């Protein structure tokens, strides 16, 4: 299947677990850590506007959702 937005070929394994799941879980955890670090830096500096912080809400939500999905499988 070709992804609508980026045009990249997407491959899927319908079986739970396995190498693809391991890679996806690692990616989700790494992404969550980067997002947490970035937002933490912005909050710690106290220099971000409300609009800038609000722009991170969807990203934070997605990262949290992915990390929770990983945690619930383990």
Structural class assignment: mainly alpha
How would you describe the shape?
extended
Low-confidence residue ranges: none
- Termini distance? 29 Å
Let me know the number of strands: 0
Q: Provide a count of the helices.
A: 3
Helix content: 55-70%
Measured by DSSP, the beta-strand proportion falls in: under 5%
Tell me the count of domains.
1
Mean pLDDT: 83
Rg: 16 Å
**Major beta sheet summary:** none
| String of helices and strands | HHH
What's the quick description here?
The chain is mainly alpha-helical. The protein has helices spanning 18-45, 50-55, 57-73.
Structure description:
The protein is mainly alpha-helical. The chain has one domain. Helix content is 69%, strand content 0%. The protein has three helices and no strands. The chain has helices at residues 18-45, 50-55, 57-73. α1 (18-45) packs across α3 (57-73). The mean pLDDT is 83.
């Amino acid at each position: 299947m070709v992804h609508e937005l980026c045009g990249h070929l997407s491959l899927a394994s319908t079986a739970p677990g396995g190498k693809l799941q391991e890679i996806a879980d690692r990616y989700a955890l790494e992404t969550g850590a980067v997002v947490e670090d970035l937002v933490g830096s912005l909050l710690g500096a106290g220099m971000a506007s409300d609009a800038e912080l609000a722009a991170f809400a969807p990203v934070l939500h997605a990262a949290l959702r992915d990390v929770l999905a990983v945690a619930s499988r383990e």
